[in-house]
Amino acid sequence: MFFAVVKVLTVRTVIMDSLFTQNVSDEAEDIPQTDEPVWILGRKYNALKELDVIRRDIRSKLWFTYRKGFIPIGGCSSTFTSDKGWGCMLRCGQMVLAQALITLHLGKDWQWMPETKNSTYLKILSRFEDKRAAAFSIHQIALMGASEGKEVGQWFGPNTIAQVLKKLVVYDEWSSITIHVALDNTLIINDILRQCKVEGGMTAEIDGETPLKAPSQWKPLLLLIPLRLGLSEINPIYINGLKTSFKFTQSMGVIGGKPNLALYFIGCVGDEVIYLDPHTTQKSGSIEEKMNEEEIEMDTTYHCKSASRIPITGMDPSVALCFFCATEKEFKSLCKSMQEELILPEKQPLFELCRERLTQWSPADVASEAIAAASFVDFEHVERQYDTSDEDFELLG
Ligand SMILES: *[C@@H]1O[C@H](CO)[C@@H](O)[C@H](O)[C@H]1NC(C)=O
Ligand SMILES: *[C@@H]1O[C@H](CO)[C@@H](O)[C@H](O)[C@H]1NC(C)=O
Asked: Ligand 2 centre from 103 Cα, in Å?
C-alpha cells in the first residue's frame, strides 16, 4: 500500500515537473488509488492491491471505436466509409452485446491476452467486423436504424440502439440471445419470462400417445432498460441506484454518455463512473484466424489499455441499464436483487418491477379498468416523447 502511495506521488511530480507523456497519464488517470471498492461489471476490486488485475479485466472487454476505411455502408454510391462523428452510440451498443456474448460463450472470468487465439473469441469478434456480412457490424446496425427512423449517419440515442440490437440478435442462431427492452420505466417479469422460455420441442420418448414436452428452455437474456433520469442532468435522487446497478453480477454496464457523446460505462468507484470511450478513430481491418503480424496487431486495437472516468453527475440523463442472464435462475436472482437493493430502499426507484402488466387493475370493475387503460395509453404516449433523448446527442466533430 505504501509503495502505491509513493508511486502516485512520483507520478504527480513527473507531471508537474516535465512534459506530459502518455504513460504517465495512463497511470494516474484510469483507476484512482483509493480504498473505496472499484466495481467493474459486478466484480468488486481493491484499487490499492489489485490495480493490475483491474486493468487486465478492463483490457479483456471488447472495445469498439470509430473506424475508417471500411466498405461503404449502403452500397457503392454511399460515402459512409467511416463512422467518425456519428457512430459512437452504435459502437457502445456493440460493446454491450459483445460483452454479453463473451459472458455466454467464454464465461465471466475469461481474460484476453495479446496472444489469445481462442477460436470462440475470434468467432465472437468476427460478428462485429466492419463489413456487411458480419451480423453486428456497424453496417448492419446503421442500416437497421432505418426501421427506427434513423438514416445512415444519424445519431442514435440509448433507446434506438436498444431497439436495433433487439432486431439484429434474432439472426445470430449460434448465440440465440433474446433482448428485452423494458419500456415506460417498468420491468414486467411475466413478459420477460414469456419471451425467454421457449418450448424445447418434443422429447424422443413418447409416453403412450401424448408426446412429452421437453422442459422449456431459456433463451439467454440481454435486458436493456432505457431511462431518463432527469431533464438536462442526472437527478441526484438516482445516483445511489445507478451505482448499485453496477454491483449486480448480471451487470453489463450502462449505455449512456456525457452530453453530446456516447460512452459505455462499465463500473464505478466512489462517485465516479468508469467507461470505455469509442471516440478514437482507428483503421478498419480484419483479424480472420489471427495468423500474421497485421492481424495480431489489428486484434489489439479492439482492447483498450486504459479506461477513463467522470463524476456520475457529469453523465447525460439518458441511459440504458444493461443486464445479462444466461439462465432463468440468474434472471430470478436479478429480480430479487433489484427488488431488495434498487427498489425497496429508494424513495424514488430508477424503475418499477411488476409481475404482470395488468395486476394493478381490477378485472371486475369494468369502469375502473377502462380508466386505467386510458391512463396507461396516455402514460405510454408521454414516455414515447422521451425519445427526444436522441436529440440531446448531437454530431461530434
Ligand atoms: C512508456 O512505456 C513504455 C513501455 O512500458 C516504455 O518503453 C517507454 O519508454 C515509456 N515512455 C515514456 C515516455 O515514459
Ligand atoms: C476458448 O476458451 C474457453 C474458455 O476459457 C475454453 O472453454 C475453450 O476450450 C477455448 N477454446 C479453444 C479452442 O481453445
From this structure: 13
